[in-house]
Amino acid sequence: MTTLGWLGWAGASVAGLGLLLHLFHRRLRISLAAPREAIGRSLTAHGLTGREVSFPTVRNRTLRGWWLDGEPDEGVAIITHGWGANREMMLPLARSIRDAGWSVLLFDARNHGESDEDDFSSMPRFAEDTEAAIDWVQRSGTAPIVLIGHSVGAAAVLLVASRRRDIGGVISLSAFAHPEGMMRRWLAWKRLPFLPIGWYVLRHVERVIGHRFDDIAPVNTLPRVDCPVLLAHGRSDPVIPFEDAQALYACRGEASVALHPLPGGHDLSDQLADHRTILADFLRQCRQGWPTKKTPDPAGDRR
What we know:
The chain has one domain (about 40-180, about 215-290): 3-Layer(aba) Sandwich (Rossmann fold). About 40% of the residues lie in helices and about 15% in strands. The chain has 11 helices and 8 strands. The protein has an 8-stranded mixed β-sheet, sandwiched between helices. α3 packs across α4 (about 150-165). Mean pLDDT is about 90; it is low at about 5-15.
């Protein structure tokens, strides 16, 4: 084969490899994309009083949610749902929080529920949306804020709380210990070998989301949280094993962390709602020592 022939063959091979990688990346993004679950019923249909709200997040997107009024002298709970879920799925827990006197903000992350679409979702982007919710609440006043997250949302609120010093407490529901553990379980479910495919997938996902897994892993962010944290996890969770909760508790360092095992599986909104005393006690702990300040009233800041 002539030199030109070899060069042509090499060029075609490189182009073919590039096309295969492009198709693989595209298929991977589709496989990892969060499904969008529509909001089924209004607050009124759920027998709740409140109002629809919307506020901006990064990349010029808008998030939509519900605000439930609590007692004026209590705090605000911001609830971040999990992957492929929406704010409606967290209403059982929101009822219990509101019954304890706290105002509640439930919102849909980007690509979820009724919020705007973006090119992809990730745990750090859930954290960005949670920070947008905090900023929106704080524009109307200052009060104790408790962050509540489920699954990916739980990892996101731990990441947010590790970066800020204006959070009164965190309730983590079914959080994973490390993103790589979650991804390895997903690869096993897809029956993909870790070497070389799985390793490449993990590194590619890190490049796409713009963060190393070690930097955002709850086992590394939890020890940096300076407010009380309640870890609730189902002993029979088939998605994220209870061992992840034990690993988080073991790595807590000097952080004020309580671990509360529950008999349920992965979705704990109903389970934890049945443990109102635990919720009320934790919220009381978060409220103690916080200066009495005006509770935000987003009524004048609706969009």
